[in-house]
Design goal:
Elements: H1 3-26, H2 33-52, H3 64-88, H4 93-102, H5 115-131, H6 152-180, H7 190-200
Helix pairs in contact: 1-2, 1-6, 2-3, 3-5, 3-6, 4-5
């Protein structure tokens, strides 16, 4: 697999994940269990896009408009990667401890046996994740104040930012697919197809170690 092919396949996967999440989230405005499921999936995809953007630089010289679009959302993608790492992709112990400290109402959760209690827990932990994204001098990294998702203006601010980022990320993946799909090598003639599948038959598998993009 060459570099352009990897970019194509990676962007295609991210595009598909974001597109499905976007369709589902647009149809829901209530912060319920299904909403959180798709929100977390979207943050995982956005974090993966953040991991991948460094590899897109090989496309910038011939596609400067792509560079402009990526730079426009790069800060938001880095924030999304942070949310993925501490909330969506992992359950971070430090984040849970900070939530316990900052939102004492989390201690009421055991009294709520229904799924609404889990939804409230997700809201509290997401809020804390957003509010811990600060610089060394305490400045918030994305929003200009603390976020309270129970407070309608804060909720709408977050949803607008999130929807805008997902839409722009989908457009970027669309553009990357259009740029790179012609660089993907096909299977070729019937003889080449046979040869490819014969080579595939000799594939050996081993555990893949976690690494950087």
């Amino acid at each position: 697999m060459n570099n352009f092919e990897e970019i194509y396949y990676r962007s295609r996967i991210i595009h598909g994940d974001l597109f499905v999440c976007d369709e589902q989230l647009k149809s829901k405005r209530d912060l319920d269990g299904v909403w959180f499921l798709y929100l977390k999936s979207a943050f995982i995809a956005l974090g993966n896009l953040s991991d991948a953007v460094g590899g897109f630089r090989v496309l910038y010289s011939e596609n400067p408009e792509l560079s402009i679009l990526v730079k426009e959302i790069q800060g938001s993608l880095e924030f999304s990667k942070y949310i993925r790492n501490v909330f969506s992709g992992h359950i971070n112990s430090s984040l849970l401890s900070k939530t316990y400290e900052w939102l004492p109402q989390i201690r009421k959760i055991p009294e709520i046996k229904s799924l609404s209690g889990t939804v409230a827990l997700n809201i509290y932990v997401l809020e804390t994740a957003i509010n811990t994204y600060v610089s060394l001098d305490g400045e918030h990294g994305i929003f200009d104040s603390e976020t309270d998702l129970m407070y309608l203006p804060d909720k709408e601010r977050f949803l607008h930012w999130f929807s805008d980022l997902v839409g722009k990320s989908i457009n970027i993946c669309d553009m990357i697919g259009g740029i790179t799909h012609t660089k993907v090598e096909g299977l070729g003639t019937s003889v080449e197809v046979l040869d490819a599948f014969m080579q595939a038959g000799s594939t050996e598998f081993r555990r893949i170690r976690k690494g950087r993009v």
